Amino acid sequence: MYERFLPALEARKQQLVMQLALIRKKIRDQQDIMEKMLEEINSWATLYWDMEQILRFHIAIREVHSAPRNVAGLKIREFIEVVFDDPGYSLFRTPYSFDVVLKKTREAISLREHIKILEEQEHVLLEGFRKTSQRINLYEKRLIPQCREAIRRISVYLQDQQAAAVGVAKVAKRLSEEGSYYVN
Predict the structure, then answer these.
(1) How many of the other CB atoms lie within 10 Å of CB of 129?
(2) Rounded to two decimals, what is the model's pTM?
(3) How far is CA 57 from CA 45, 49, 52, 88, in A?
(4) Using an 8 Å Cβ cutoff, are 83 and 23 in contact?
(5) pLDDT tens digits for range 27-68
(6) Where are the domains of the chain?
(7) What is the average pLDDT across 3-10?
(8) Tell me, which fold does domain 2-141 have in CATH?
C-alpha cells in the first residue's frame, strides 16, 4: 500500500517544486517592477509632501480581492485587485498633478499587496513541500522497510508452521499405518 502511494507523493513533490520556481520568479519580477516604480515615485518626493494631507484619504485600502486556487492539493490565494476608498475630490481644489500622483501611488500599493500574496503563496507551497518530503522520507526510510521486514517474518513463520504441519501429518500417517498393521 505504501509503495502505491509513493509515486503519487513524488509527483506532488515535483509539482510543488515547479510551482515554487514559478512563484519565486513572479516575486522577483514584481519586486523589480516595484523598484523601478519607487525610483520614479522618489523623483516626485516633493509633490508627495505637498499632497500628503489630501492623498492620505485616497489611498486607504478598503479591500484586497483574491480568489482561492488549488495547487497540488494546497489552497493558495490568487491576487485579483486592490479596492481603495474613493472619496470624491474637486479638480479645482487639488494640485494639477494630483491625478497622476494618486494613480501611481495606487499602482505601487497594489503591487505591494500583490507581492505580499505571492510571498504568502510561496510560504504555503514551501510548507506543503516540506510536509510532502517528510512523508516521502517516512515511507522510504521507515514504513516500507518495516513492512518488508514484517512480511519476511510472517513468511518465515508460515513456512515454519507449514513444515511443522507436514511433519505432524507424516507422523500421523505413519502412526495410523502402524496402528492398522497391529489391528489386523
Answers:
(1) 19
(2) 0.74
(3) 18, 14, 9, 10
(4) no
(5) 999 999 999 998 888 887 777 777 777 777 778 888 999 999
(6) 2-141
(7) 83
(8) Helix Hairpins (1.10.287)
